[in-house]
Amino acid sequence: MKSVVQFEGVLNGELRGNLISVLNAVEAPEISKTELKKLCGVALEMLDNAQRYANGMITFKWDLLDHGYTIQVVNNASPEDALRLIAAVNRANALNMVQLKATLLQDLTNGEFGVKGGAGMGLMQIAYRTNGTLEANIEQIEHTLYRCESTFNLKRA
Amino acid sequence: MTPLFELPPTSETPLIRIDPSTGLFLMKGICIPEDTPGFFGKVMTLYTEAIEKLTLPAVFRFELRYFNSSSLKGIYMLMKKMENSSKDGNEMRIEWVMDGDDDDLIEYTDLLSSGICLPMTLIRTS
After folding, report:
1. CA distance A107 to chain B (A)
2. Which ipTM was obtained for this model?
3. Which end of chain B has the lower number of beta carbons within 10 A, N or C?
């Protein structure tokens, strides 16, 4: 396993922009340009979610495995946001491509942003654009705080 | 004529350039704003004001290297607003510029064009 990028800290808009620029500039012979674009899109949505819902520091890592890639984000969040993450992953994983496209279109055209400014489409878009798998695990660490772990796995083309 | 207007790019928002002398509304760079509703609300106001004074056909050109899903929604809402203005008689079209090998973006334009009636052209750069 080779670590492509690792980040630990408090995310802000500028940092997220810089991190995405770094990811886009990754040059590894194992990763094609098309795969890199796709993976950057996934990383972008996961970081976007983390920034919107994280309470404090986040850990982001992108690993290159023998057979594929793993992108993982770990952050703490409120119970409401932790449960929302689980629901969003379950929703994305339950739909086939036709259903995903229809749901994305419905979310795109509903004319409203979420309470925290998101579109509610990030994880669905990941599922739609890739053949990867999304997983989310949450663990209560305090009365009103959950540890959230989101993982995306993609087999190499 | 209204002068050329520019909103400079940042590490998370694209360059916005409105050129009344050509009718070009350019959005170029990366688009991952922290406050997506706020950013697109501002752009929507700028576009709406410029459209009201424009005497030429409008071209909305998107040259975005990358953007997040909430920005896709912002772009959709912006285009929907412009589409409604076009019903008042303004001539408009969309140009979506993408890297020659970036087929991923086609999925986005496909989604956008499903809900927008303005003519949309894909331009591939080499």
Report:
1. 8
2. 0.87
3. C
